[in-house]
Amino acid sequence: MNTYLHKKFYINTKELVKNIQLDRIIIAISGGQDSVCLIKLIQDFKNHYHPLLKIEYIYIDHQWKKDSKNQVKHLSNFIRNIKEKIYIYQLPNIAISETKARKLRYQLIIQHSMYYKNCIIITAHTETDQIETFWIQIMRGTGIDGATSLTKQRLLYNHTKLLRPMINFKRIDIHWFCRKFCLPIWSDITNYIYSIDRNRLRYELMPYLKKYFQYNIEKQIYKFLDNCNLDNEYIKQNTVKLYLMSRHPINIAINYSIVQKQHLALQKRTLQAFFYHNINIVLNYDTLSKLIEVIKKDIIKYNNIAIFKNINITIHNHWIYIY
Fold it and tell me: Rounded distance, CA 23 to CA 52, Å?
């Protein structure tokens, strides 16, 4: 634990696991330099501070690449060499988008965590990933939630948390760290395919912005995201309060007359929370806007409203019911 990244990782980890019983964790890896760096850091953390910590690794193989089998062997040998356990899930080679693939990976990791009763999931997301996610979400027309979606920690279900202790690590520092300790990085050829949005952002847009607009743009975006996170947390807390105040004590319903008195931002978030909490559905922008407009108008004219296939809502006596 003699490098500044070791110290930084220790500080981040201690902050993230505060008030959490750290006895068993699962690490989601890919084999790239970020993942290999995380493996080295977490193993050193275990050896120096928590020798009884049980660490398991998980890798999701989409089998998109011709050398995917070799990559699996590479990871297996590396993890076996440090005497830890690794779980590898190989998925059918089907053509799906990067976004859907990411969602599928998270679903598998969460299901694995639930089955093996792991309360802590750790990923190797870095500052670079956070900035790239910010740009991708902005181009999709997201709000503050989407722009700040890659945070230090996230509650997945019950008491299970997703932690990102390397979220403030710079790519150049990780590269130096891997070279210093001669870590076996697997070079992923898909990282150099410019038709992938994330790669084009990394190798074309960001260098262009650094050269012609703002040399330390990563630092400025990171500061912006940090400020947005604070604002977002404040709004979330008020959303939860409003939702608890306005929901029906027995039925799946929410009192729109209470919600309607608040700012539009809180109205939208509270309705989102209502639908997601009860039927696990995220309302898109158009559906949410339609619902807000219906609430503003004469309720008698809009008694039954179709929101999704097989899901309707009824508005009656200031209450919105789902059925």
Answer: 7
pLDDT digits (tens, 9 = 90+) for 228-253: 999 999 999 999 999 999 999 988 89
Per-residue pLDDT of 87-123, as tens digits, reads 999 887 666 677 777 888 888 888 888 888 888 999 9
State the binding site. 30-35
pTM value? 0.85
CATH class of 4-212: alpha beta
Residue with tokens 């006596």: 317
179: nearest Cα among 3, 49, 59, 43 = 3
The three-state secondary structure class of 29 is coil
Residues annotated in a binding site for ATP: 30-35
Helices (H) and strands (E) in the chain, counts: 13, 10
Q: Domain spans of the chain?
A: 4-212, 223-322
Domain 223-322 falls under CATH 1.20.59.20? yes
